[in-house]
Specification:
The complex is a heterodimer of chains A (244) and B (250). By secondary structure, chain A is an all-alpha fold. Chain A has one domain. Chain A is built from 10 helices and no strands. With 250 residues, chain B is of the alpha/beta class. Chain B contains 8 helices and 10 strands. In chain B, the strands form 2 sheets. Chain B has a 6-stranded mixed β-sheet with strand order 6-7-8-3-9-10, with helices on both faces. The longest helix of chain B is centred in the last third of the chain and has 16 residues, at 163-178. The termini of chain B are far apart. The chains are: A mainly alpha (244), B alpha/beta (250). Chain A binds chain B through residues 4-5, 8-9, 12, 15-17, 19-20, 78-80, 82-89, 240-244, and chain B through 15-16, 52-58, 70, 72, 75-76, 78, 80, 82, 84-88, 90-91, 95, 99-100, 102-105, 127, 143.
Chain lengths: 244, 250
């Protein structure tokens, strides 16, 4: 493997985004604005401290999922991917390049959102803010890599947009934001164990209430990253050098 | 000795339930400019995609530079321009070239060389989305020229270009061939045929003629390639049902 190919692809993707300041602005600021809105809505209640961490996961996750899948889809459809695949770059190097570029943006975005939530909106978790940051970062990377994988199964931007209600919303519903997972019907609880977002929300709820130790959170971060790595590998396996 | 750069034996391509190419046999020799001509839908792009190794369901034998089409080792040796310009619109011309140069493992100053060859020096720092159609085509071509590949497969590189630009590109193609590059150039403009060393006329997935431009005129008794193509089609048994199609070519 030539890791340089992945780095060059990542820097090319970032250069492309740098030429589009509006996208970059939306990408980095929208989750923070949503967190701010939520803090304002719940300003005289304890709910922001309680649900804030989980929401901090949902907004970046959804935004990164959508942005990554559409960008990757555009490359798949524009003919540049076909051209690249006649050149000496492997499918994995290509996918990894995309994952690196968008993970970088995801990390920036999440760091801004967490900082904004804590220092501007006054989010006060019972558990560690630093653990919260780590989980949020892993979660945004997860959104990126799942978007990368999802783009393989879409033929148009319309389809990708439909993947948000089809693939993201069920994970939010089953993830335990509204109702703790262990109070759900057994079948749903079992399914939710296998959904990556559940582990994110588990970790964030634990931080909000400080019910678990750092080992538990670390374990959850590892699970989240394992899903992310799996998505990159599966995503590159879905690429075809030869197409019809 | 003249080497065979592309060699096809009973090449068939099947898409879904339809066979697109019906057992093609041909050879392309080193340093020549071969024109692949035919109406749209005749299978030109499918044939080119088979040669560069991005086409699925290819049967029969197709060798490029002595290796099966699509082999890993060929990825540094051929340049391909697909029908739609495959360029990143949200990068500048030079950023596109530098990225592809790094993937092709050629020195970065090769980007400046191909920029000069395609006459795009003054557009180097321009965003691709702001280029004219002709400049966009040439950017796509410039990428294919990176690293001086032994074989260039160009799918309709002159489509939509004005006559001056088209003449310039053909001068470039002749110059590349003189330096030893082999070119396979598709077109549906018959007047480009006379600029090729050899012509492959493709129609409905079959090779209608494989000759030099002069030989083709002589065989058909036509005065120009357009006329020659029509005469060849009229000799086909299924001419009647395809008439409207062939008129569109003319």
């Amino acid at each position: 493997m030539r890791i340089q190919n992945a780095w060059r692809t990542a820097s090319r993707v970032l250069t492309q985004i740098a030429h589009d300041p509006r996208t970059l602005g939306l990408l980095l600021l929208v989750p923070s604005l949503l967190v701010g809105l939520m803090a304002w809505i719940f300003s005289d209640t304890p709910f922001f401290d309680q649900f804030g961490p989980a929401v901090l996961a949902l907004f970046p996750f959804t935004v990164m999922f959508l942005v990554t899948s559409i960008t990757t889809l555009r490359e798949r459809r524009s003919g540049t991917l076909e051209r690249l695949l006649t050149m000496p770059i492997s499918k994995f190097e290509f996918t990894l390049g995309y994952a690196l570029a968008f993970s970088f943006l995801a990390i920036l975005q999440s760091a801004i959102a967490v900082g904004f939530a804590v220092w501007v909106c006054g989010l006060d978790t019972k558990g560690s803010i630093w653990l919260l940051l780590w989980v949020a970062l892993a979660d945004a990377v997860l959104g990126t890599t799942l978007g990368l994988l999802a783009s393989a199964f879409a033929n148009s931007e319309f389809q990708v947009a439909q993947f948000v209600p089809a693939l993201v919303f069920p994970q939010i519903l089953l993830g335990g934001v509204f109702l703790p997972r262990d109070t759900m019907p057994d079948v749903l609880h079992a399914i939710s164990d296998w959904l990556p977002l559940s582990h994110v929300i588990d970790a964030l709820n634990a931080i909000a209430k400080d019910t678990e130790d750092a080992n538990y959170i670390g374990m959850k971060i590892l699970i989240i990253l394992a899903f992310a790595v799996g998505a990159v590998i599966l995503g590159s396996a879905t690429l075809r050098r030869r197409t019809n | 000795m003249v080497n065979s750069v592309i060699s096809a034996k009973d090449l068939r391509v099947i898409r879904g339930k339809h066979e697109i190419l019906h057992g093609l046999n041909f050879d392309v020799t080193e340093g020549s400019v071969v024109g692949l001509l035919g109406p749209s839908g005749s299978g030109k792009s499918t044939l080119m995609r088979s040669i560069v190794g991005v086409q699925r369901h290819v049967h029969g034998e197709i060798n490029v530079l002595g290796e099966p089409a699509g082999s890993k080792s060929l990825r540094l040796k051929l340049g391909y321009v697909s029908q739609s310009p495959s360029v990143y619109e949200d990068l500048t011309v030079i950023q596109n070239l530098k990225y592809f140069a790094s993937i092709m493992r050629v020195p970065r100053n090769d980007a400046t060389r191909v920029l000069k060859v395609t006459g795009l020096e003054s557009q180097a720092r321009q965003l691709v989305s702001t280029l004219s159609g002709g400049q966009l085509n040439r950017t796509s071509l410039a990428i294919a020229l990176l690293g001086k590949p032994a074989l260039l497969v160009l799918d309709e590189p002159t489509v939509g270009l004005d006559p001056v630009l088209r003449a310039d590109l053909w001068t470039l193609f002749r110059q590349l061939a003189a330096e030893g590059t082999t070119l396979l150039v598709s077109s549906h403009v018959m007047d480009e045929a006379s600029r090729c060393d050899r012509l492959l006329l493709l129609r409905n997935g079959l090779i209608l003629a494989d000759e030099t431009p002069a030989g083709l005129l002589k065989r058909t008794g036509a005065t120009d390639p357009d006329d020659a193509f029509l005469r060849l089609i009229r000799n086909e048994p299924d001419f009647d049902e395809q008439t409207s199609d062939s008129k569109r070519v003319a």
